[in-house]
């Protein structure tokens, strides 16, 4: 059957399409179905993933998988967190990742000048079925440190400034396969797969 990947972010769509490929479902992006972007009014990654999945499932009549994710910096008490995308936006809503990374680095450095700032990515995945009030959510995480200047042009978002624990290259430099094997998204997806084994998609 079909599964809607309820994201308007091409970087996420690429990664989630790769993760769901082995499931044998036909992945369809939210843009392809011209689904609107619901307002992310939740107070947590899980709440926002839940509302994006339910909106896409109800409007498309298909099961929908949504991702809400972000970068949490220890020195910034977990910010930008659920505001990770908003930190990239200018007054017209255009996104500039260099601007977002610069803000993160500047604020982290102002708090802890000499340390390599500790940070982690969080990903909440939510799966929803049409007209079913409940979505199920799964949360994953990867720990690391931040570097400046950003390095590498792979991945998306904050990847060029994030070095995962156990590596010395950023997610922007590492092979996408390496990121997929250890990322916050892969961690959440593993939990989703474990639940699917109990309760399959069809
Ligand atoms: P959708 O809501 O349409 O899925 P979005 O980009 O608005 O797309 P979020 O609200 O979840 O999604 O914002 C998450 C931001 O966190 C995202 O735009 C990235 O900048 C950042 N982020 C999440 N996962 C990341 C990853 O794997 N690598 C780098 N940055 C990531």
Annotation keywords:
5 helices; Maf protein; six-stranded mixed sheet; single chain; globular
Provide an overview of this structure.
Homodimer. One of its GO terms (cellular component) is cytosol. The active site is at 68 (proton acceptor). This protein is an alpha/beta fold and 202 residues long. It has one domain (2-198): Maf protein (Alpha-Beta Complex), CATH 3.90.950. The chain contains five helices and six strands. The protein has helices at 10-20, 45-60, 97-111, 176-182, 184-198; strands at residues 2-5, 26-29, 64-73, 118-128, 135-146, 162-164. The protein has a six-stranded mixed β-sheet. Strand 1, helix 1 (10-20) and strand 2 (26-29) form a beta-alpha-beta unit. Helix 4 (176-182) crosses helix 5 (184-198). The protein is globular. The mean pLDDT is 94. The structure holds inosine 5'-triphosphate (ITT).
Lay out the secondary structure:
Blueprint: E1 2-5, H1 10-20, E2 26-29, H2 45-60, E3 64-73, H3 97-111, E4 118-128, E5 135-146, E6 162-164, H4 176-182, H5 184-198
Parallel strand pairs: 1-2, 1-3
Antiparallel strand pairs: 3-4, 4-5, 5-6
The protein binds inosine 5'-triphosphate.
Uncertain parts:
none
Average residue pLDDT: 94
How would a crystallographer describe the biggest sheet?
6 strands, mixed
**Residue fraction in strands:** 15-25%
Question: Could you spell the SSE succession in H and E letters?
Answer: EHEHEHEEEHH
Q: How much helix is in the residues?
A: 25-40%
Q: Looking at the structure, what is the overall shape?
A: globular
N- and C-termini, Cα separation: 7 Å
**Structural class, please?**
alpha/beta
Strand order of the largest sheet: 2-1-3-4-5-6
By DSSP (H or I, 4+ residues per run), the number of helices equals 5
């Amino acid at each position: 059957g079909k599964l809607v990947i309820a994201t308007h972010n091409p970087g996420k769509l690429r990664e989630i399409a790769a993760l769901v490929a082995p499931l044998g479902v036909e992945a369809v992006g939210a843009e392809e179905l011209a689904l609107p972007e619901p307002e992310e009014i939740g107070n947590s990654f899980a709440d926002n993933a839940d509302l994006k999945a339910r909106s896409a499932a109800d409007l498309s009549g298909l099961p929908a998988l949504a991702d809400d994710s972000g970068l949490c910096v220890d020195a910034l008490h977990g910010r930008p967190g659920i505001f990770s995308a908003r930190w990239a936006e200018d007054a017209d809503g255009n996104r500039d990742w260099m601007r977002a990374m610069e803000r993160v680095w500047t604020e982290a450095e102002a708090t802890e000048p000499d340390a390599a700032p500790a940070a982690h990515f969080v990903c909440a995945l939510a799966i929803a079925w049409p007209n079913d009030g409940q979505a199920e959510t799964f949360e994953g995480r990867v720990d690391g440190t931040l570097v400046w200047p950003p390095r590498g042009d792979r991945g998306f978002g904050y990847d060029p400034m994030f070095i995962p624990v156990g590596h010395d290259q950023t997610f922007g430099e590492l092979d996408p396969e390496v990121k997929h094997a250890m990322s916050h998204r892969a961690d959440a997806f593993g939990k989703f797969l474990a639940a699917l084994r109990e309760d399959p998609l069809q």
